[in-house]
Amino acid sequence: MIPHTAQAEHTANLMERILYEVKRVVVGQDHFLERVMVAMLSNGHLLVEGVPGLAKTLTVRTLADTLHGHFKRIQFTPDLVPADLVGTRIYNPRNGEFDTALGPVFTNLLLADEINRAPAKVQSALLEVMQERQVTIAGTSHAVPRPFLVMATQNPIETEGTYPLPEAQVDRFMMKVLVDYPSEEEEFVIAERVTGPAVQVAAVASMEQLAELQQACRKVYVDPSLMQYAVKLVSATRRPADYGLAELTPYLSYGASPRATIGLIEGARALAFMRGRSYALPEDMSGLVHDVLRHRLVLSYEALADGLDADAVLRRVTEHIPLPEKALAPHEHARH
């Protein structure tokens, strides 16, 4: 077994090499890239919202090349049917039997591009595979390869010809990340790279190594006080009056589910792991609150009328609920 210091150094080096390769192609988007890595280490899924042309597809494709994994992209359109995603049974006239044709979800990294362009029945076809990592076709279950990550992109909901995602599916995404336009300096570098010679990325890790990193990430210590902080944050979105936030009650139709609490804890673990620590600190969790919770809140019409969005509600919640004192490392906790 590798000693902890050697394990931490190995992890940091591997993460650095992966990010270096991706950044040879993708310019800027540091927050987005970090969240993609958090989702991969946490074995979670990612929903990305932004206008076209912000390197969302390029980022996932480059990551797949860097990790030497299988990558597939599905372009969601209004005429798509569930079988186009998960697969179907096809009659074979040669032997008179039905063969199973597996769909594009059987991959390591799946990009569901413009997911809100397809109707709800197609979006819901991803429900089982995102949660159970398997697909059921004609009563038979088929497991997808491991590790498995879905990254879905969507245009802002105001764009014409889009469908809102079902709440049950939205909740299965660990995080929703908002991608903004690059700065002038970044856009100059983007134009320089795209119009220059093509960059070939090297595969610096394998999917087996990623699976090992996921297992190691689960061993990162999270102090009970930090878990309690996550529970309070999520509970405050359901019963704000119990936490001295009665003014938010008219704005929230439904709060976040327990998956949000789990996402905060797993995300804090992954960030601590990426930063070379064997224990999570409060700042590891606090920076993830908006990304983990924003898509899980169902706001009332009153909130929309007052011009409040989920991020504004979450800002009030985080300002009101204090962070715990610096969490203890596992050995310090054992001493107490």
From TrEMBL:
Pfam families to which the protein is assigned, alphabetical: AAA_3, AAA_lid_2
GO MF term set: ATP binding; ATP hydrolysis activity
UniProt domain ATPase AAA-3: residue ranges: 45-175
Record Gene3D superfamilies: Magnesium chelatase subunit I, C-Terminal domain, P-loop containing nucleotide triphosphate hydrolases
Keyword Oxidoreductase: no
Family: Belongs to the MoxR family.
ChlI/MoxR AAA lid domain sequence ranges: 250-316
Assigned keywords, A-Z: ATP-binding, Nucleotide-binding
CDD domains in the cross-refs: AAA
Protein name as annotated: ATPase
InterPro entries: ATPase_AAA-3, CbbQ/NirQ/NorQ/GpvN, ChlI/MoxR_AAA_lid, P-loop_NTPase
Organism: Parazoarcus communis SWub3 = DSM 12120
